[in-house]
Amino acid sequence: MLRKLIKYDxxxxxxxxxxxxxxxxxxxxxxxIFISGRLFHEDSDFSDPYTAMAVGLLVVLFxxxxxxxxxxxxxxxxxxxxxxxxxxxxxxxLTLPVTPGQHLLSRTISGTLWGTLDMFLCFFSxxxxxxxxxxxxxVGRELLQAWKELLLMSDSGLPSPAAAVCFYIxxxxxxxxxxVLTIYASVAVGQVLFGHxxxxxxxxxxxxxxxxxxxxxxxxxLTGGLNMFFTPxxxxxxxxxxxxxxxxxxxSVATILVLYLLTYYMMKKKINLD
Amino acid sequence: xxxxxxxxxxxxxxxxxxxxxxxxxxxxxxxxxxIVGLLGPNGSGKTTLIKLINDLLxxxxxxxxxxxxxxxxxxxxxxxxxxxxxxxxxSMRVKDMVSYYGDFYDNFNRQRAGQMLDDLQIDEHSxxxxxxxxxxxxxxxxxxxxxxxxxxxxxxPIGGVDPAARDYILQTILTNYNExxxxxxxxxxxxxxxxxxxxxLFMRTGRLVLNSSVDEIRMEKKKxxxxxxxxxxxx
Lengths: 274, 235
Known about the structure:
The complex is a heterodimer of chains A (about 270) and B (about 240). Chain A is built from nine helices and no strands. Chain A has helices at about 1-40, 50-85, 90-95, 100-130, 135-150, 160-190, 195-220, 225-230, 235-270. In chain B, about 35% of the residues lie in helices and about 25% in strands. Chain B is built from nine helices and nine strands.
């Protein structure tokens, strides 16, 4: 049953999300062929105000497009969850012979899958749009070096660069899962507010996010993570990044568990369709 | 054999501040093989009872048992539920909905669904959002009645369709359930359905005020169900 639920959930999400991401990749390809490919080369004069303005505008507009795609993915995941379980469709979905746990797990898997794919495709579209051979030679080399120094640091405690890459992939996936479950928990708790279900869910989304940020800051302060800032002589950016990432990862895992249980409880005990 | 539906002291209160219970200590037992009309004015608790049977609400107190089991995955296998409002994803095609039902319900009969769609000349390739409200309701009913369920719960199955279609729907209901199954049918259109009913349940303010066979009403009280309803619920 879980496989069937995931299949139908992806079937519902796929058409619009494939279209949106295909559009982004197509836009990135056009930018690469018609604009960045012609602007970013050895002979480019970035001190020329027109060239600088064109590059600036291009970066801003494409960043906006990427943000819009990221936002629309989250929005579609939220709308699908709400409509399929808490609106009229819920009368069918919730009377299928499956448990609330299977409903929630299937949606968590499909939402996280699309969220992760969305992140990967957005990164790829930026690469596609701007990573011309000239950019790869200049900025890319510097970025790669910085990434190696910062993220593949020798004192990271990870046994190998491959383990470090695995950690960062896991970090991205848990980040996406946290966002997806924040959406689900907001919708599930918000549905008890009759007449204000959508506004309630949006408000709850921001409340949960703010609470998570405050909690992260408190955890960082309590575990000594902020001490580095007060002792600049010994401040090590690589250590700070590593410390923050590991702490955020643990907090994300804890948040996922709490939000999953909260959403499950609401679906099991507090369902009340219009 | 367990009764198909049993309610013991079933109570539902939506919030602590509510003036009254939506369902108030309801005791009810329904045996198999009958068509039961669930009747009552608005706010009498019909939909609340239907939601509790379908595990769409959690009771405040008391129990509801379907074939001796509490609402859950097992009971959802044997209940075929037609809600009052449209529950189909409008972006899906009719044939996708048939596959959807076939995928999730072991007792769904695709052939029967196809036959009924043909009878009503509903194109399986149409998207639901392109169909009229009445046709969408027919599709919903076809999907629900194409299951070999033990209990059919139909909430206002003829409410939104024209009188001509009502006859077809009632015929569909009558011809597509087996003798051991029970149909619990809620509607305000009593005159249209009273000829197919075996038993009626009258509800008022969350309580059962009458649980009687249609024959008893006709033979002993010399009244039609509609007349009886008007008498009991006279304003």
